[in-house]
Design goal:
2 strands, 3 helices, 5% strand, two-stranded antiparallel ribbon, mainly alpha
Length: 116
């Protein structure tokens, strides 16, 4: 397995002919700084966050094929979170919080404003 994007420096790397920025915004584990893990994050804010990532790569979650790939990937991370919890790598609270973020990611394409 190669080095992580973060380990490659700020210049980026090439993937399918596109530059993948390594100094991109880190995925916020607590978008909009909720007061607690139980406080929901605004669905449109989460959707805008994910859409911004895709737009920087010349893609959009408004494209059904791209949205489906995103959903599959986010759901797979949910499975990884459950596995980490089951193996004792994550506490129950940590796994629950991260699983909620994975669900928000899966649902993100549903909350994009139409026609933008």
């Amino acid at each position: 397995m190669g080095p992580s994007l973060a380990a490659r420096g700020e210049s980026g790397s090439e993937h399918d002919g596109r530059s993948v920025p390594t100094n991109a915004t880190v995925i916020p584990l607590r978008p909009a700084a909720p007061a607690s893990a139980e406080e929901p994050v605004g669905d449109q804010q989460v959707a805008a966050f994910w859409e911004g990532i895709f737009l920087r790569q010349g893609r959009t979650l408004r494209d059904p094929s791209t949205a489906e790939c995103h959903r599959i990937t986010a759901a797979t991370f949910g499975l990884l979170i459950n596995g980490a919890r089951d193996q004792g790598v994550l506490s129950e609270d940590q796994a629950e919080y991260l699983a909620k973020l994975a669900v928000e990611a899966v649902r993100a394409p549903d909350f994009l404003p139409a026609g933008e």
